[in-house]
Amino acid sequence: DSERMHTQTLAWILSLDNKLFPDKSGFIKGLFNLNHSVFIDNSLYVETELNQIDLFIQTTEKQFIIENKLKTSEHDYQTKRYIDSIPDRFTDTNKTKHFGFLTLINDEPQNQEWIPISYEKLRDSLNSIQWPADKNETIFIQEYIQTLDNLVKVFNQFVINHKDYENVFTDGYK
């Protein structure tokens, strides 16, 4: 499933050693449009598919929950339900919670506590980071950024002229 692949890749990037990715704080701050800093130390916790939460990120002071929607829109009030599905072991009233709705089509979440995060913003945020050229991980990250770029470009072309994509709404096997 392509949503899961993107979620897993983002989780892997956030789990990288601080020497390889020292500005995780700036990255998260930018994705979530935060005006204040996000303190991230070695206790950063990242998990995918946590009680149906696509991506759960915890710092010493904050929690970030991301719902990833690549091919579908929100259904069944997922954003409301996912707020309530944080496991008890992570329920901490002292931690500020931030909710991000990652979407290719700039879909608005049904719950206003969630902020929309576009795949274009994710691509631009990753692309703005100075990844060390001498690390093997950088090759994979650059390939992922290129994948995001291709995805965003095709989507934008589709929006401009969907008639160029005659097979989008048909079954390719028939």
Report what the structure shows.
There is one protein chain. With 174 residues, the protein is of the alpha/beta class. The protein is built from 5 helices and 5 strands, in the order H-H-E-E-E-H-E-E-H-H. It has helices at 2-14, 24-31, 78-83, 119-127, 136-160, and strands at residues 45-50, 53-58, 62-69, 96-103, 114-118. Strands 1-2-3-4-5 form a 5-stranded mixed β-sheet. The chain is globular, with a radius of gyration of 17 Å. The model has no long low-confidence stretch (mean pLDDT 85).
Summarize this structure as a short list of keywords or feature phrases.
174 residues; alpha/beta; 5-stranded mixed beta sheet; 5 helices; 5 strands; 19% strand
Number of strands: 5
Rg is 17 Å
Shape: globular
Number of helices: 5
Question: H/E order of the elements?
Answer: HHEEEHEEHH
In spatial order, strands of the major sheet run 1-2-3-4-5
Alpha-carbon distance between the two ends: 22 Å
Strand fraction equals 15-25%
* Mean pLDDT figure: 85
Overall structural class, as computed from helix and strand content, comes to alpha/beta
Low-confidence stretches: none
Portion in helices: 25-40%
Largest sheet: 5 strands, mixed
Summarize the structure.
The chain is an alpha/beta fold and 174 residues long. It has 5 helices and 5 strands, in the order ααβββαββαα. Strand 2 and strand 3 form a beta hairpin.
Question: What is the fold's blueprint, element by element?
Answer:
Elements: H1 2-14, H2 24-31, E1 45-50, E2 53-58, E3 62-69, H3 78-83, E4 96-103, E5 114-118, H4 119-127, H5 136-160
Helix pairs in contact: 4-5
